[in-house]
Amino acid sequence: MGGAGEGREKAMREAAFMGVVTASITHEVQNVLAIIQQSAGLMGDLLDLSRRETIKSLGFRKGFQYHDKFSSLIAAINEQVKRGSNLSDGLNRLAHTPDATADTTDLARATGLLFALIGRIARKRRVEFVLDAVDGAHVAACPPMQALMALYGVARVLIDALSGRAVHVAVTAWEGGPVVDFILPEGDGTPAIVLPEPLCDREEAGAPTVAVQADRIRLLFPPGDVQAAGR
Amino acid sequence: MEKHDWNVLLVDDEREFVTTLSERLALRNIASRVVFDGESALGEVAENPPHLVILDVMLPGMKGLEVLRGIRAGFPNVKVILLTGHGTTKNGIEGMKLGAFDYMIKPLDIDVLIEKMTEAMGGRR
C-alpha cells in the first residue's frame, strides 16, 4: 500500500476511535439528562402535591409562596434537558458516521444533522441556516461522512462570508440526482462567494459536483437507491 | 388520582434514574419494584411475575435484549417496554421483533410512559 493509502487508513482508524469514544460518552450524557429530568419531574410532582397538602418532611406548606417561581425553574430545567438531549442525539449520530458502512446518504437527514451540530458556530457569526421543508427522502450514492464534509465545506464558507444573514437550504430532486441548494440572501451587501478548490476530493466515488450560481450554491450528488439509504 | 392495579418491574442500572422514576410512579398510584441488573430482573420475574417490565437495553453484564429473550421464553404474558438511548434505537426495533410491546427513548416523559403502560395493559387500570 502506498503512503497516501496508509495515511488514509490511519485517518479512518482515528476517526473510528473518535466515533466509538464519542458515541459511548453521548450514551452517558443521555443517562445524566434522564436523571436530571426525572429529578426535576419529582420536584414538580411534590410541588403540585404541596398545592393540596402540607409536606412536613420537605418543609412545604400548603400555599407555598414560591410555587410559581419553582414551577418556572422546573420548566427551564426541562427545556435545557430537551436541548441537551437534541445536541447529544446529533453528536451520537455524527459519532456513528465513521463506522457506517453505508455508501448512500439521505441528504435531508444529513443536512438536518449538520445544522443541528454547527448551530453554535453559525450563531457566533450571526448566520442562520433555515432548512426548507423536505418532501420525502433524497438519497445520494455518497458515503455519509463524505456527504457531511461536502455540506460542511459550503456551510463553513457561508458562515465566514454572510455574517448577520439567513441562508435557506433546500434539498430537492434534480435531473441527474439529488441536490442541496444553499440559497444566498437577496439584496445589496451579499459578497461574492468563493469556495476553496477543491471543496472535496473529486476522485472519490460519490463526490458531489459543486456549482456556484448567482443566487445559490448547488451541490449535485449522484443518485442513490432509496431502499439502501444509510442515514 | 385513580389507583392502578398493576405489578410493574423497573430494570435499569442507573440507580438515581430508576428509583426516582419509581417514586414518581408511586405518586401516580402505580406501585413498582426496582432492580439494577439483568440477572436480578429474571430472578424477580420468576419469583413474582409482573404484568409489565420497563427494561433498559444497555445494562452491564446481561444485556437488556438477553433479559427480554428470557422473559419471552418463560413468561410470554409479561409485557415489556424497552428503554433505549437515541443512538441505540436499533436495539429497540430489534427488541420489538423479539416480542417487546414497544420501546421509548431516554430521557422520557412520564406521562407518555404511563400512556404506553396503559396501552400495554390493554387499558386495564
Instruction: Name the CATH homologous superfamily of the largest domain in chain A.
Output: Histidine kinase-like ATPase, C-terminal domain
* Gyration radius from CA atoms of chain B, angstroms: 13 Å
Overall, the morphology of chain B is globular
CATH architecture tag of the largest domain in chain A: 2-Layer Sandwich
What's the overall average pLDDT of chain B, rounded?
Answer: 92
How is the biggest beta sheet of chain B arranged?
5 strands, parallel
How many separate helices of chain B?
Answer: 5
Highlighted features:
heterodimer, A: 231 residues, alpha+beta, Heat Shock Protein 90, 2 domains, 5-stranded mixed sheet, two-stranded antiparallel sheet, 7 strands, 14% strand, elongated, B: 125 residues, alpha/beta, Rossmann fold, 5-stranded parallel sheet, 5 strands, 43% helix, globular
Could you explain the architecture of this structure?
The complex is a heterodimer of chains A (231) and B (125). With 231 residues, chain A is α+β, with helices and mostly antiparallel strands. Chain A has two domains: 3-96; 105-228, Heat Shock Protein 90 (2-Layer Sandwich). Chain A is built from four helices and seven strands, in the order H-H-E-H-E-E-H-E-E-E-E. In chain A, strands 2-4-5-7-6 form a five-stranded mixed sheet, covered by helices on one side. Chain A has a two-stranded antiparallel ribbon with strand order 1-3. In chain A, helix 3 runs parallel beside helix 4 (144-161). The two termini of chain A are 30 Å apart. Chain B has 125 residues and is α/β, with parallel strands linked by helices. Chain B has a single domain (8-120), classed as 3-Layer(aba) Sandwich (Rossmann fold), CATH 3.40.50. Chain B has helices spanning 15-27, 38-47, 64-74, 89-97, 110-120; strands at 8-11, 32-35, 52-56, 79-84, 102-105. A five-stranded parallel sheet of chain B has the order 2-1-3-4-5, sandwiched between helices. In chain B, strand 3 (52-56), helix 3 (64-74) and strand 4 (79-84) form a beta-alpha-beta unit. The longest helix of chain B has 13 residues, at 15-27. Chain B starts with 7 loop residues before the first strand and ends in a 5-residue tail after the last helix. The mean pLDDT of chain B is 92. The chains are: A alpha+beta (231), B alpha/beta (125). Chain A binds chain B through residues 23, 26-27, 30-31, 33-39, 41-42, 45-46, 49, 81, 85, 88-89, 92-93, 95-96, and chain B through 14, 16-17, 20-21, 23-24, 27, 58, 85-88, 106-108, 110.
